[in-house]
Design brief:
Length: 217
């Protein structure tokens, strides 16, 4: 079964994506920010840790979710690209890596309690996300989920996500996943481009970042 790694800049929608995928009946568990894959541990150690959560590796898909963006080594995507490379190496054809992409203004609004400041950190975020996308474009086992598309058309994009993860994606399963309890409540399309209601005066061409995406779910 598929080994799933979910990542993305903090406050980009990784928790929502993690919970939606974890709600699929073929997914045994997706660990939340325990950093199984991050530290210098062998594949056997990662499998042993996962075995405490998943009782049958042949029957269930499983994985881990780790956001990034708060550490010095996150700059230029060094840490997250290292984790993705390790995941791909450890699990080979079974590996799947998903990066969640969200408008940087909304990331900052969520992270900073309603303030968008175009400072060095903003430029650092945009530049780093772009480099992670460039890396993920090099491997078909990696794909990008556009947050705004997922919350606006969840049925269609969940089908694409589950297909990418080699999971069943019929209507009944997708309906069950969408109606499952989530940490932040139901999927809400109003959270897409929420910054527009905050009278943000800065200009930023998010479409240029989206156009960099190769494998888009």
């Amino acid at each position: 079964m598929t080994k799933i790694f979910i990542t993305g800049f903090r406050h980009s929608g990784t928790t929502m994506t993690h919970q939606l995928i974890k709600a699929h009946p073929q997914v045994g568990w997706i660990e939340n920010e325990e950093s199984y894959i991050e530290f210098d541990k062998p594949k056997e150690w990662v499998l042993q840790m996962a075995s405490h959560k998943v009782d049958d590796f042949k029957k269930y898909a499983w994985g881990e979710k780790i956001p990034w963006g708060v550490r010095t080594e996150d700059k230029d995507g060094k840490r997250v690209i290292g984790m993705i490379k390790k995941w791909l190496k450890y699990f080979g054809r079974q590996a799947r890596c998903i990066q969640v992409l969200r408008h940087p203004f909304d990331v900052f609004l969520s992270d900073r309690g309603g303030n968008v400041i175009l400072d060095k950190e903003f430029k650092w975020q945009v530049n780093t996300v772009g480099k992670v996308i460039d890396f993920m474009n090099t491997d078909p086992r990696c794909a990008i989920v556009i947050y705004e598309e997922l919350v606006t058309y969840p049925e269609a994009h969940l089908a694409e996500i589950f297909k990418f993860l080699n999971l069943y994606y019929g209507k009944k399963i997708i309906d069950k996943v969408i109606n499952s309890p989530l940490k932040f409540g139901k999927i809400n399309e109003d959270r897409a481009f929420a910054y527009k209601s905050k009278n943000v005066k800065y200009d930023y061409d998010y479409s240029k970042l989206v156009r960099k995406v190769g494998n888009r779910l």
